[in-house]
């Protein structure tokens, strides 16, 4: 996801977004389960650097504080499949992009994470005053809504979910039409990503 954060700066994208690492939601679930078992507290969980650095925008050189974002892109591995979660900050809603709905409906793959997303994440956001920072009411007792995206592009092979996640996120970040994302273009997308990473690396080297 660092690659996608880099694109916002390197290609001067207009959309205000940040990303999380691949284990962000899994860690929230672990902490949520530990709270329920009485093994930790909300304060201890919310204050963990591995969570707070993403919300506060200190995880990478390109990260943004969530209060400054319109969207936060969160990859989630459900065990054998990658799913993209997109947090729409002002709407307090997470959209689920599942590129392999033949396995199930859009939301079934993330059922085990539902409670930590809807109940725990709002408390962490309030702990870090995300909504107060943009002069809005905190989450309080409200839950984050979860919505499956019906027209998500679908992969044609079982091993392509990771690449689809990256390309769906990239298309959304660049305000491109997801209808243009097809299985036929996946090979070209892989080459394009490699070339962009090489270009960025060469630029960094030339800048010292």
From TrEMBL:
The keyword Hydrolase applies. Coiled coil: none annotated. Residues 1-172 form the Ubiquitin-like protease family profile domain. GO terms for molecular function: cysteine-type peptidase activity. It comes from the Eukaryota. Pfam families: Peptidase_C48. GO terms for biological process: proteolysis. Keywords: Hydrolase, Protease. Belongs to the peptidase C48 family. This is Ubiquitin-like protease family profile domain-containing protein. It comes from Cuscuta epithymum.
């Amino acid at each position: 996801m660092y690659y996608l954060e880099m694109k916002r700066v390197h290609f001067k994208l207009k959309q205000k977004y940040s990303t999380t690492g691949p284990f962000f939601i899994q860690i929230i679930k672990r902490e949520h389960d530990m709270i329920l078992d009485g093994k930790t507290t909300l304060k201890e969980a919310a204050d963990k650097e591995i969570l707070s650095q993403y919300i506060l925008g200190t995880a990478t050189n390109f990260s943004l504080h969530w209060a400054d974002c319109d969207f936060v892109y969160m990859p989630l591995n459900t065990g054998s499949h990658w799913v993209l979660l997109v947090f729409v900050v002002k709407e307090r809603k997470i959209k689920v992009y599942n590129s392999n709905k033949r396995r199930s409906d859009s939301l079934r793959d993330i059922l085990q994470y539902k409670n930590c997303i809807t109940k725990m994440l709002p408390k962490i956001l309030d702990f870090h005053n995300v909504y107060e920072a943009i002069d809005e009411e905190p989450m309080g007792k409200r839950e984050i809504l979860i919505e499956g995206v019906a027209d998500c592009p679908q992969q044609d092979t079982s091993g392509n979910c990771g690449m689809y996640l990256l390309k769906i996120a990239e298309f959304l970040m660049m305000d491109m039409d997801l209808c243009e994302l097809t299985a036929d273009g996946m090979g070209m997308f892989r080459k394009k990503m490699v070339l962009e990473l090489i270009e960025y690396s060469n630029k960094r080297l030339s800048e010292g």
